[in-house]
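PROTEIN SPECIFICATION:
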Amino acid sequence: MRFLSIMAVLAALTFHGLPAMGASVHIPTKPPAVPLAVRSPYLNSWLQCDSECNLPGSWPRFWTSQVQGWQGFVAVDGAVYNWLGAAPGPSNVNQLSLEYTSTRSIFTFDVNGKVNLTVTFLSPVYPDDLGRQSQQFSYITASAISTDGSSHKVQVYMDVSGEWASGDLSQVINWDHNTSGNLSYHKFFRANQAQFSESGEIASWGTWYLSTDSTDGLTWQIGQDTAVRTQFTNNQALSNTKDSDFRAVQTNWPVFAFAHDLGDVQSTSVERVFTLGLIQDEVIDFAGQSGSLAPVPGLWSSFYTNDLSAVVAFYNDYQHATAVSNELDQRIQSDSEAAGGQDYSTITTLTVRQTFGALQFAGTLSKPYIFLKEISSNSDIQTVDVIFPAFPIFVYLNATLTKYLLDPLYENQESGAYPNAYAEHDLGTFPVAKGYPAGNDEAMPLEECGNMIIMTLSYAQHTGDVGYLTAHYPKLSQWAEFLVNDSLIPSNQLSTDDFAGTLANQTNLALKGIIGLKAMSQIANLTGNDDKFGAIAHDYLTKWKGLAINTNANPPHTTLSYGDNNSHGLLYNIYTDKLLNLNFVDQSIYDMQSAFYPTVALEYAVPLDTRHNWAKSDWEMFAAAVASKDTQTMFISKLAKWIGATSTNRPMTDLFDAAAGGFPSNGPTFVARPVMGGTFALLALPK
């Protein structure tokens, strides 16, 4: 278990002496940013890491970098210390260690040599449980234990500010405190609810809840930040009162606080649990089968009678969440180590919460949907070429999730609301999935046709749902006809790497279309239709090899575009030949590329192509998954090294400088994007 690793570290620290202040141990490495509460596009809070990843003294931040006020104190024998946030006053505890797993970020602190405080941020991932996964809530636990053999009086405090409820800090928020059974909770929300609107990417509608157990020794308070925090630092307890002056987020900064008195803490740890999250009745505005916009409920509402029952159920589910998260953490850790060693698990375990944190679960039990936000690039909703790099994680965890992502795209296009012959790029700007009745979406025709065909076949292969192929065969065959016309000699167009601009005759893009035709051949055979595509795919592949490979190079390799022998690029689209088990592309092509990549590798990665030194971490793992063992190890070790060394300090970017390790100079800044699900490319391959 990963839990044992942190216990071993703490034992070593106890034996050898505590580290110097600020010299925190990082397990398995120091990430660019630490996921704290990350379960949806709107519950997406991180600790940004500079030279260290120290929680005390730092404000947690939304993925945009906007501060989200979140403060934690701990009192030991009347002396108060800061374990979370940057409020003035108490000194910081000494952070001993940070460990991340697929679902947890675990911080351990020494409090004045007397007590160890372990704080765990748990954002569960339930790939097989739609009800639980649909809730936009996370757990925070604080556990204290004496380390000097003596008994100590310990109190733990936590608050959040109104910054969570509005990206526009001038907006007035309302609030309340109440109890339900064993639960004590604060709720707060914008007075002016603006459904399906955002400010600074933060939702302008919904109600936030901070909850904890109503045990003996619990106190609470709602009021001005300085007043509430001073109340605790002076008294180690709160006043059980609420400010009645509803006001703007930035006006005397209202905060919502709890404090637990843990009593006399000795050699047995004492733990308290908090939950934080957001309830939204309707989550997406979607133009589906009717072609007209209509609100879609949060999927959570099919499982819980109202918001309070959902809040209570999530809190009371903590033991189950812990057990399921332990199992998933261990599964991903062990599978990753078996596939690619510890370096590979360093990568995969960092990307799970980030990927699922871009998903909004919506609809009903009879018709569930997953809507994806293209975080940080342009906030599109249901971007096909963002779902595509992410989907290896869904193949690995539960292939049916792919269907729930594809369904909105099929519904919108099959309604007749999209006029183009090729596949739609996206459905609009999150959270409004209006589609493009004028056909004026960002055009990536070959890219998206190939992606839709490949992902649809993959879903059917893993689930046996041939009926899904039959239901969508008219649209699939329409897209395949487009590939017949455009895939061998691609016109001047964008690929998914649109930041690099348009280009004609793209070698890698052409291969996607050709593999798409081979996939369509399988779909035709599975559904009992005439296969018009298999022979064309084989003919195109033969011709592609003559156009795409620089045979005079030493070593030979594919080019970025046909005939440009001074160019090269990462041939990541070859991956789906193995993923779909097509046995279509010659093994010699895989071997050729495996021999070539090490000759152009830079410090942290193989550049995407010869236009820049930029690397895409998702595509690095696509290429690694089908490379020779030595080349695969090279890809993995370089990316794992980058995670611990990069100068970026935002949620893991998928675009960086392969030589310097920072964000690309004069390029876009991508952060927190769900494409990092592509790091599961090795684990998604057929066994």
User: Anything to note?
Assistant: The first helix runs from residue 2 to 16. The CA atoms of residues 73 and 82 lie 4 Å apart.
